[in-house]
DNA sequence: ACTGCCGGGCC
DNA sequence: GGCCCGGCAGT
């Protein structure tokens, strides 16, 4: 499997020729978009969980647009259509980018593809020149007998994708969304989706997202009394696991993008011909744009490493590093039956505000426990301290802590 | 430069 | 544990 890195300029032009034979997904965001997303308070993701569904719907809608172009390749979209794409893409990006957990966008083929699906999958779209969605056409059809769309309804999973509903999205800020389709289509019924707890030393696997969330909530987050309440934090600590019963690893996952200019966390789309799913890794920065589709046998785990993260990124064999515009991110993958897990970053990180520069990298890590990085140092006390109040000359009046150059105990902030 | 205080050493 | 201080980092 290979991924290709595109520069911003590539996206503006027809880059279809540059597409590798394999699937890939490329998502581009404007720098402003990323900044916007970055400056949002992490906690906000917890405030709009109910918007998750909306995010998913938007994705589907977006996908629909894509598919609509499939059969009409070189035809340019109408301006109205383009506008809609813009809006939709912006909304999707925004909502997804704020989601710490990157789940692949569920898409219902029947609805989103307008019946234009062909057995082989997507047909190259000419819309790439418009900076929108673009799919690469699979070169072969792995399963002619199953002319179903790559994305099946039964694979739709209501992943929670916290979004920010009240954040108006400026169409003008919408950037490019480029998708690519995995070439080979996978057979249905060969995958089983499970949810694995990423909590350190846990690894509990449950069959439902709700179950794993509840598990995390009650067991790890200690929210016994509010087991029914979810603020989305538990999303950070579990990942989707695809258990493949098929030995053939023809599925590919796509990867996506990143803001060429900012190096945002690339959305991570993976595609499953039959079971599109979303595998999302949340990041507190909300920069992650989780547009993922998974190949039947692959599950990607995305991890974003911020400058403050203490743990260095882990690269595993079969990974690729992108360096769009100097900003890099890497993606790792493996063939089935290996499972990728997106490692979420705790939303509770102590992160400096206004992180304009997003030094981010996306990594896929195998079975990595959730990593949580804390601020190295607690915020400096702002109030008066013994030293200031009494002065150096009255050092004997200082509290003990101050005398010992420890955190002041008398004038606690 | 000043200040708060962490991390660590010494007793 | 008490005491002290080098040094980092925020202001």
Automatic annotation (TrEMBL):
<dbReference type="GO" id="GO:0003700">
    <property type="term" value="F:DNA-binding transcription factor activity"/>
</dbReference>
<feature type="region of interest" description="Disordered">
    <location>
        <begin position="133"/>
        <end position="173"/>
    </location>
</feature>
<keyword id="KW-0238">DNA-binding</keyword>
<keyword id="KW-0479">Metal-binding</keyword>
<dbReference type="InterPro" id="IPR052253">
    <property type="entry name" value="CR1/CR2-DNA-binding_regulator"/>
</dbReference>
<feature type="region of interest" description="Disordered">
    <location>
        <begin position="101"/>
        <end position="121"/>
    </location>
</feature>
<keyword id="KW-0539">Nucleus</keyword>
<protein>
    <recommendedName>
        <fullName>C2H2-type domain-containing protein</fullName>
    </recommendedName>
</protein>
<dbReference type="GO" id="GO:0000978">
    <property type="term" value="F:RNA polymerase II cis-regulatory region sequence-specific DNA binding"/>
</dbReference>
<dbReference type="GO" id="GO:0005634">
    <property type="term" value="C:nucleus"/>
</dbReference>
<feature type="region of interest" description="Disordered">
    <location>
        <begin position="256"/>
        <end position="276"/>
    </location>
</feature>
<dbReference type="GO" id="GO:0006357">
    <property type="term" value="P:regulation of transcription by RNA polymerase II"/>
</dbReference>
<keyword id="KW-0805">Transcription regulation</keyword>
<feature type="domain" description="C2H2-type">
    <location>
        <begin position="195"/>
        <end position="225"/>
    </location>
</feature>
<keyword id="KW-0804">Transcription</keyword>
<keyword id="KW-0863">Zinc-finger</keyword>
<dbReference type="InterPro" id="IPR013087">
    <property type="entry name" value="Znf_C2H2_type"/>
</dbReference>
<dbReference type="GO" id="GO:0008270">
    <property type="term" value="F:zinc ion binding"/>
</dbReference>
<keyword id="KW-0862">Zinc</keyword>
């Amino acid at each position: 499997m290979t991924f290709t890195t595109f520069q911003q300029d590539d996206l503006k032009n027809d880059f279809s020729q540059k597409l590798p034979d394999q699937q890939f997904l490329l998502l581009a965001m404007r720098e402003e978009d990323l900044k916007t997303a970055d400056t949002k308070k992490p906690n906000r993701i917890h405030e709009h969980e109910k918007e998750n569904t909306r995010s998913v719907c938007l994705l589907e809608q977006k996908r629909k647009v894509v598919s609509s172009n499939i059969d009409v390749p070189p035809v340019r979209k109408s301006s109205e259509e383009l506008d809609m794409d813009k809006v939709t893409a912006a909304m999707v990006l925004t909502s997804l980018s704020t989601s710490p957990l990157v789940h692949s966008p569920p898409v219902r083929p029947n609805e989103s593809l307008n019946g234009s699906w062909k057995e082989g999958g997507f047909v190259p779209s000419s819309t790439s020149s418009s900076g929108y969605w673009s799919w690469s056409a699979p070169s072969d059809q792995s399963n002619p007998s199953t002319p179903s769309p790559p994305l099946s309804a039964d694979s739709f999973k209501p992943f929670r994708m916290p979004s920010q509903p009240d954040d108006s999205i400026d169409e003008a800020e919408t950037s490019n969304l480029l998708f690519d389709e995995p070439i080979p289509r996978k057979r249905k019924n060969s995958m089983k989706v499970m949810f694995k707890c990423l909590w350190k030393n846990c690894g509990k696997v449950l069959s439902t997202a709700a179950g794993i969330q509840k598990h995390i909530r009650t067991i790890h987050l200690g929210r016994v009394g509010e087991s029914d309440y979810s603020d989305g934090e538990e999303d950070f600590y579990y990942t989707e696991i695809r258990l493949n019963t098929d030995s053939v690893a023809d599925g590919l996952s796509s990867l996506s993008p990143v803001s060429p200019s900012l190096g945002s966390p690339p959305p991570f789309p993976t595609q499953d011909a039959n079971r599109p799913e979303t595998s999302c890794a949340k990041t507190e920065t909300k920069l992650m744009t989780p547009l993922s589709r998974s190949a039947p046998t692959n599950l990607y785990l995305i991890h974003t490493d911020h400058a403050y993260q203490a743990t260095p990124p882990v690269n595993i064999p079969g990974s690729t590093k992108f360096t769009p515009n100097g900003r890099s991110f890497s993606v790792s993958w493996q063939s089935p039956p290996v499972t990728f897990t997106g490692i979420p970053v705790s939303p509770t990180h102590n992160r400096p505000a206004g992180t304009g520069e997003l030094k981010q990298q996306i990594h896929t890590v195998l079975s990595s426990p959730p990593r949580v990085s804390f601020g190295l140092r607690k915020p400096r006390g702002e109030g008066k301290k013994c030293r200031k109040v009494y002065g150096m000359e009255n050092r004997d009046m200082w509290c003990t802590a101050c005398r010992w150059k420890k955190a002041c105990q008398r004038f606690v902030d």
